[in-house]
Amino acid sequence: MASQVFWIGLGNMGRGMSKNLAEKGSLDKPLLAYNRTKQRTDDLVAKVGSDKVVALDSVEEGVKRSQIIFTSLSNDKAVEGLYETILKSGDVKGKLFIETSTIHPDTTERIAKSLTGAGAEFVACPVFGVPAVAEAGQLIFVPAGPKSSIDKLRPFIKGVMGRAEIPFEDRPYGAALKLKLIGNTFVLNMVTQLAEALTMAEKTEVGTAPVQQFVDLFVGGPFSVYGERMVKGVYHKMDAPLFSADNAIKDASHALDLGKEVGIDLKNPAVAKDYLQDVAKHAGGDVGDIAGIYGAVRMRAGLKYENDA
Ligand SMILES: NC(=O)c1ccc[n+]([C@@H]2O[C@H](COP(=O)([O-])OP(=O)(O)OC[C@H]3O[C@@H](n4cnc5c(N)ncnc54)[C@H](OP(=O)(O)O)[C@@H]3O)[C@@H](O)[C@H]2O)c1
């Protein structure tokens, strides 16, 4: 029987991933899509075409009609709430659920237990990459769960939504989330490093341009991207965040929790979290971007949150 695929959650990440799935996933039938704010589902249909995506008004309908269901929501509470709705919606037996959000490993394990207990298949699959990378279909996927279930996801990774995978086949679901949190400590640290260096440059005679030049020449990659988001003032001019302060605080908190669980008092995520709380206070947790750490560092140095770019 031809499989029906359903996508739930069209935020920064879900938008790009679902677009690529609909366009390049060689799906048997148009992708079904649902988002809490309906406008985003309509936008996806307008962008990709009604022959490739069908907008739905309810999670329940999508789950009922589908065999493979992807989810991408902001935080643990939202993801747990969604899976409660899914489990209440009826029979999930034999369906495959692929959960791509960044949540606590214990949350993932709980959800996996409920679903597999009800006869469903589950793959925990956080992803690495910024929204532009999701849009370009170049994400790094970290799938965990039974190999047979991961094999069903694989046709949708390379050449569709991702460029690579770091698999945890037949390993605990939580392992994928642990790697995701460890990975995000790099991002938190990188953004904090850039913010402090650029503020230091501003307070001395160096200036920010030579630091950005150094970053481009010496490290490049995401350092350059985030540096530019700061120097060009994008962090305070953007209409909506690309990586919200709330989501970044969640990631830092989960990483700190995980460290505590295994007896490590992590310092780097604690510093980033401290700055992010200033970003949330100043710009709003769902409006401020992770790159706003630059504004937070600036304020503590006696400068305005916004730079003059
Ligand atoms: N942004 C990044 O750079 C990045 C990179 C890798 C992984 N991630 C992770 O991937 C996940 C998605 O990230 P994102 O940046 O796409 O987040 P986002 O832009 O904040 O989008 C969040 C999505 O969750 C939905 N949502 C939030 N609360 C909800 C609730 N209570 N009930 C139902 N739906 C709810 C939102 O619906 P509405 O549209 O109705 O608000 C939206 O579809 C997060 O776990 C994040 O940590 C993010």
From TrEMBL:
Keyword Oxidoreductase appears in the UniProt entry: yes
Keyword Transcription regulation belongs to the record: no
Keywords assigned: Oxidoreductase
Source organism superkingdom: Eukaryota
Domain 6-phosphogluconate dehydrogenase NADP-binding stretches: 5-158
Stored InterPro entries: 6-PGluconate_DH-like_C_sf, 6PGD_dom2, 6PGDH_NADP-bd, HIBADH-related, HIBADH-related_NP60_sf, NAD(P)-bd_dom_sf
Protein family (similarity comment): Belongs to the HIBADH-related family. NP60 subfamily.
Name assigned to this protein: NAD binding domain of 6-phosphogluconate dehydrogenase-domain-containing protein
